[in-house]
Amino acid sequence: MNDLTTRFLNNFTQWHEVGLTLIKTTIAIGVLCLVAYLLTIGYIPADISFGDTLFFY
């Protein structure tokens, strides 16, 4: 049973790392799309603070 638990935890750690990487990649692609869109329409926000970015989380 101990071997089964160890294998499960090792696999869980690997899947956790893969999941985090996918989430980070998705966020990066979203930010790049947003920046590209804002540049396309010619709108560059001037009054964005760090507190405004917390709204998106």
Can you describe what's shown?
- By secondary structure, the protein is an all-alpha fold.
- The protein has 2 helices and no strands.
- It is rod-shaped.
- The mean pLDDT is 80.
User: Which regions contain 5 or more consecutive residues with pLDDT less than 50?
Assistant: none
Helical segment count: 2
Helix content: over 70%
The overall pLDDT average reads 80
How are the secondary structure elements laid out?
Blueprint: H1 2-41, H2 50-54
Question: Quick summary of this structure?
Answer:
With 57 residues, this protein is mainly alpha-helical.
Keywords:
57 residues; mainly alpha; 79% helix; rod-shaped
